[in-house]
Amino acid sequence: MMATMDVHHIGCLSEEDSWFLFRQRAFTTGVEEESHIAIGKTIVKKCGGVPLAIKALGSLMRFKSHESEWRNNSYSYGWQMDLFPLKTKMIFKELVWRSFLQDVEINSKGDVTCKMHDLMHDLAVSIMKHETCIPEYGKVMEIPKTLRHLSFDIPSIWANLDNKRKLKFPGDGSLRSLICHKDKLTSYEVDVSSSLLKQRNLRALHDQS
């Protein structure tokens, strides 16, 4: 025999339960500093009752002993979603299911918008910052040897410099994804050199030309 089962909608945790869960993860040694408690409650409030966010942030704070480190995580909002430009439908659905992404909406044109909790995004960035790089125009950046994902823009000002730019990539073939954006009004030629041919592990290549 077959029968339908009732759907149980899981809501967010209460403020009390959220704090209890956070304490379990953040204060494993049993030592709870007054300053850490105050900041911790601020972090928990921003998690909005999402268990995954609370557990992740609690686990992260477990290894931070200084008050300044706790405050930095409490007030960190400077990251951009553009740091992770590659999304597949499968990964997107998985992230939604696990509460990494919320408030998913689809407009009449089929464009999908969503939100990622600030603290959850900060956690993702802290994990990926040594593997992901987005160079900023006018700034010199040291490309880490552990680089796996590279995304960069070709501004229109390059047209005033010369018509050809040479790009070099990690020599050990560690690059997994490469994304190149450009101004629609810019005409350019990029010499990727032989270093790109060594990227045997490259899985995603996007050249917006």
Automatic annotation (TrEMBL):
<keyword id="KW-0433">Leucine-rich repeat</keyword>
<dbReference type="GO" id="GO:0043531">
    <property type="term" value="F:ADP binding"/>
</dbReference>
<dbReference type="InterPro" id="IPR058922">
    <property type="entry name" value="WHD_DRP"/>
</dbReference>
<protein>
    <submittedName>
        <fullName>Disease resistance protein RGA1</fullName>
    </submittedName>
</protein>
<dbReference type="InterPro" id="IPR027417">
    <property type="entry name" value="P-loop_NTPase"/>
</dbReference>
<keyword id="KW-0547">Nucleotide-binding</keyword>
<dbReference type="GO" id="GO:0006952">
    <property type="term" value="P:defense response"/>
</dbReference>
<feature type="domain" description="Disease resistance protein winged helix">
    <location>
        <begin position="90"/>
        <end position="124"/>
    </location>
</feature>
<dbReference type="InterPro" id="IPR042197">
    <property type="entry name" value="Apaf_helical"/>
</dbReference>
<keyword id="KW-0067">ATP-binding</keyword>
<dbReference type="Pfam" id="PF23559">
    <property type="entry name" value="WHD_DRP"/>
</dbReference>
<keyword id="KW-0611">Plant defense</keyword>
